[in-house]
Amino acid sequence: LTQERYPVQRLPFAVVSDEDLAAFERILPGRVITSSEELEAVNVDWLRTVRGCSRVLLKPQTTEEVSQILRYCHDRKLAVTPQGGNTSMVGGSVPVFDEIILSTSLLNQVVSFHGVSGVLVCQAGCILEDLSQYVEDRDFVMPLDLGAKGSCHIGGNVATNAGGLRVLRYGSLHGTVLGLEVVLADGSILDCLSSLRKDNTGYDLKQLFIGSEGTLGVITAVSILCPPKPKAVNVAFLGCPGFTEVLRTFSSCKGKLGEVLSAFEFMDAGCMRLVQQHLHLSCPVRESPFYVLVETSGSNMEHDEAKLAAFLEDALDSGLVTDGTVATDQRKMKTLWALRERITEALSRDGYVYKYDISLPVEQLYDLVVDLRARLGPSAKTVVGYGHLGDGNLHLNVTSEAFSPGLLGALEPYVYEWTAGQRGSVSAEHGLGFRKRDVLGYSKPPSAIQLMRGLKALLDPKGILNPYKMLPSQA
Ligand code: FAD
Ligand code: MLT
Ligand code: ZN
């Protein structure tokens, strides 16, 4: 699957021997997995487009064990792919060849939580949804949320600098992560697990690892700032007659809902058709060309409801919105959120998915979708746009019955050139991983890429950490 589709050559790393397996077994008794059944799942990515052939999966439970493993691999020049929940959208979390898979699944303990500051310290393999439950039981929320919450690990979220559904309200992980513990390629432990809001002592090293996609170190623990749980949450699901109205609805929301606006997501009619057809979800409003999900989070239900009602009345009267429904109870809110969150799953059932995750000036956010529909014509099964409109982040997805080199040729480099022409980003939130590493140059100048290579060489001189990922292949 991988080598056929993407030209790539194995680098001269050592091959795992029986002595290596015995050494791992001494470090992790009973947690060195070599059974082909278990290896099958961890060798293939979520989208099923990249497949490695690793012979061994390691499951450390402590930072010290991660350190011992990496020290050993570094000495032997064995390549390692760190893996969290394996929900990467860019083939970042699976080996390309026979790299050792280092899973964080057993690094899954909460270390501490402070009920005044809201600072949570936990191991990197905690599942995001479990952490959400943990802090919600204590009247806080996680500052991030995403459709993959049931499987993704907080370490994987930090390693990809995952965005998701709450960036509009709480900002990115570059702001909410207060500290990290990282094991470097040679096994040394970097303890930057601070819980302080303010700390200007030297370079802020943790920032280097946020979004480094497993190429600079293995994150073993995270300190993260959790906001108090909002007392009042409302969700409105609205139908809009055109993209201009979607934009005007966004402006209106910012003006009228201001401090309580916590999410502004959009999806087009094609997305609605996909979740109806493949997941049997039903559309809660009259059929429309576009749909918008607005969430408010505040501290006073009456106040928020009144604001939302006034906004909706205006939006309906002025024709920005043609139909809408509002939810305040948990069950209905979940149902409305599912329409947006489960588009990814519906797409994967539609066929082979060509996935683009682009940052653009919000005014131009949908132009490329319209352009591509005309460009691709019937050669594509579906061309859809959805995403985090409030963050200027478009998810442009195209499907076909099966992988088609012709369709890929019509999409790339066209999509990347178009994006670069708008000074957009070719990866807003999913990272580059294996599949997008060669398009980094569309969004970063050669001098920046050179400095990235220098940092990689400094922190991982033998290149053992997640090779073939993030940085472009060298000609
Ligand atoms: P993995 O997929 O296992 O790994 C991702 C990368 O991080 C890999 O390069 C891996 O080597 C590295 N890595 C993992 N753990 C560590 C660690 N402890 N130390 C160092 N490196 C590590 N992304 C968004 O940004 N926003 C979304 O809204 C969003 N929604 C999604 C919805 C669905 C249904 C799916 C399947 C994916 C979605 N994603 C989204 C993509 C994905 O980036 C996130 O799901 C998540 O951040 C990945 O976490 P993970 O634990 O699965 O990491
Ligand atoms: C989302 O916002 O749904 C995710 O980033 C996943 C995707 O792009 O499909
Ligand atoms: Zn997204």
UniProtKB/TrEMBL annotation:
SUPFAM superfamilies the record matches: FAD-binding/transporter-associated domain-like, FAD-linked oxidases, C-terminal domain
GO molecular function, a single term: metal ion binding
Entry cofactors: FAD
Family from the record: Belongs to the FAD-binding oxidoreductase/transferase type 4 family.
Protein name: D-2-hydroxyglutarate dehydrogenase, mitochondrial
Superkingdom as given in the UniProt entry: Eukaryota
Reaction it catalyzes: (R)-malate + A = oxaloacetate + AH2
Gene3D superfamilies, sorted: 3.30.465.10, 3.30.70.2190, 3.30.70.2740, Uridine Diphospho-n-acetylenolpyruvylglucosamine Reductase, domain 2, Vanillyl-alcohol Oxidase, Chain A, domain 4
